[in-house]
Amino acid sequence: MNNLHLNVKQITEIPQKIIRKTVKSALIEDLVANDITSNIIINESKSVSANIITNETMTLCGKEFFDEVYKQIDHKIQIKWFYKDKDRISANTTFAHLYGSAISILNGERTALNFIQLLSGIATKTALYVDTISDTQVRLLDTRKTLPNLRLLQKYAVYCGGGINHRINLFDAILIKDNHIVSSEDSIQCIIDKIKNIYPKKIIELEVRNLKELNMALKTKVDIIMLDNFTIKEIKQAVKLNSNKVKFEVSGNISLLNIKKIAETGINYISVGEITKNITPIDCTMKFI
Question: Which pLDDT value is given to residue 83?
Fold first, then answer.
């Protein structure tokens, strides 16, 4: 089972133009003018060495953004990486080394670390979820619950953590939710027929909120049925009713406490909004030597 069934392109890298634009925007937040503290205290000719150290176990993500920060501030800064994106790193480990102008390194320190901490935090949490269900056939999906203007970055981080990207945007696949059905004047079957006529190659997914809606959904010919906020007992009943006719995705109130039990019910996908919505940045720091 893989993401090809979802017909969605996995974000395995970020285009350079997006990296440049995102970093430029982030630097403007910090360097509206000058770093007046460093300019007063430090001689402009002073060069230093610095280590980037993680204080906790992490899955690395965001190297290219870190590098781009210093390309835009001072291309003479030398950066040596000891790990690559997707690598898992133990706590108290130096994972990168910098050398160059002290003022330039300090100018970019917070912005560069913000990218690493944010994206590695997502990758690390994703990896934890993936590990928890690794002995099942279920695949972990992300959602569109992302920070504004940072969707590609966050979905790339999910990829680095071993997760699968669901829809990148609203055009990637058809997902019929309750609000669509309430707003439409057509029956569910008419809606599906209309979609297939216009987009014959698009994956169609239908959300259901209870077993009654599931029984109706099973009479249609959709590719995936999303069981939204089902209890584990209800999921097991749904799997029995389904008899492997259609793929099942489970969504809603998923946590590390219940994901393993849900994965063991016989469903195919679990989507988790928490991995991109409730972000805990990685605790890492820059230390001058």
Answer: 98
Sheet with 47-54: strands ordered across: 78-81, 93-101, 47-54, 284-288
Decide if 53 is inside a domain.
yes
* Neighbour-count burial of 16, counting CB atoms closer than 10 A to its CB (0-12 exposed, 13-18 middle, 19+ buried): exposed
Annotated catalytic residues are: 110, 145, 177, 207, 228
- C-alpha neighbours within 13 Å on the C-beta side of residue 30: 18
- What phi and psi, each to the nearest 5 degrees, are found at residue 67? -60, -40
Looking up tokens 């949490």 gives: 125
Segments forming the whole domain that contains residue 22: 8-130+280-288
Strands 284-288 and 47-54: antiparallel
Both 284 and 267 in one domain: the answer is no
Predicted TM-score of the model (pTM): 0.93
Query: Residue 6 has what pLDDT?
Result: 62
Nearest C-alpha neighbor of 139 from the set 241, 275, 261, 267: 267
- pLDDT band at residue 5 under the 50/70/90 scheme: low
Q: One-letter amino acid identity for 61?
A: C
Residue 1 lies in a domain: no
Query: 78 in a domain, yes or no?
Result: yes
Q: Is residue 269 part of a domain?
A: yes
- Give all strands (DSSP E) within 116-208, no chain letters: 139-141, 174-176, 204-208
Q: Are residues 124 and 188 in the same domain?
A: no
Q: Are residues 273 and 284 in the same domain?
A: no
**The amino acid at 54:** T
